[in-house]
Structures are given as structure tokens and as C-alpha cells.
Amino acid sequence: MTMRVEIRPLNLRGKPLKKAERNALAPVRGNLKVFENKLHAFGRAVRCARVLSTSDGLEADLLPELLDAELLWLDDKAIRLRGVEQVDGTLFGQTWDIKVL
């Protein structure tokens, strides 16, 4: 099951973006999918989150996958997830502010 969302990442390559920098970037809109996956690099099953575009019936990642995703809070139509993303072979801390559409 997926849900239609708008996401604003709070970090860029592990460094926090200032509020003005976050607001200057266009939000990413797509379908949020959260699932458990066994990752050999972690040596265990981890919760993963992906935001996908489903144009032309094909799924394509709009942001790097959030690994070891943890729910920080959930409100009426807002969610915050934290985890790590892999960019160019390096893991970086990442947090997503998510608005349910």
C-alpha cells in the first residue's frame, strides 16, 4: 500500500539545511512506500522508505531510499521519518518532512 505525499528532505549529504534553504527547494511529490527489507550490509532486517513516481506504470525513485527508517512523529496530515540514505556509496543521515496529500 502506498500514499500520495509531498516530501521535503531536511538534510543535504548529511548536513542540515536551514529553513529558508528547505523552503527554497521544490517539494518532491510521489507515492510513499514503507516496508521491511533484509539488508546484508546492515546484517539484519531494516525498515525502508521510498518515494516513487508511477508515471507510465513504472516505479522510479524520486529521492534516495531512506534506510533504517524510524517514525519520529505523526500528526493529522504530517509525518516525520528519519534514517540514512546512500549517495555515491556513502551513508548520510536524512530526515523527511512528509505532508499527506
What can you see in these coordinates?
The chain is mostly beta strands. The chain has a single domain (3-100), classed as PH-domain like (Roll). Helix content is 6%, strand content 64%. The chain has one helix spanning 19-24, and strands at residues 3-9, 11-12, 15-16, 28-39, 44-53, 60-61, 66-74, 78-87, 90-100. The strands form two sheets. A six-stranded antiparallel β-barrel has the order 1-4-5-7-8-9. It has a two-stranded antiparallel ribbon with strand order 2-3.
Q: What are the salient characteristics of this protein?
A:
101 residues; mainly beta; PH-domain like; 6-stranded antiparallel β-barrel; two-stranded antiparallel sheet
Cα end-to-end separation = 15 Å
Q: How do the SSEs run, as a string of H and E?
A: EEEHEEEEEE
Number of helices: 1
- The overall number of domains is 1
Mean pLDDT: 93
CATH level 3 topology: PH-domain like
What is the level-2 CATH architecture name? Roll
Secondary structure tally: strands:
9
Strand order of the largest sheet: 1-4-5-7-8-9
How would you classify the helix and strand content by structural class? mainly beta
Sheet having the most strands: 6 strands, antiparallel, barrel
Low-confidence stretches: none
Report the sheet-strand fraction.
over 45%
Q: Radius of gyration in whole Å, from Cα?
A: 13 Å
Helix content percent band: under 10%
Supply the CATH class. Answer: Mainly Beta
What overall geometry do the principal axes of the alpha carbons give? globular
Nutshell version of this structure?
The protein is mostly beta strands and 101 residues long.
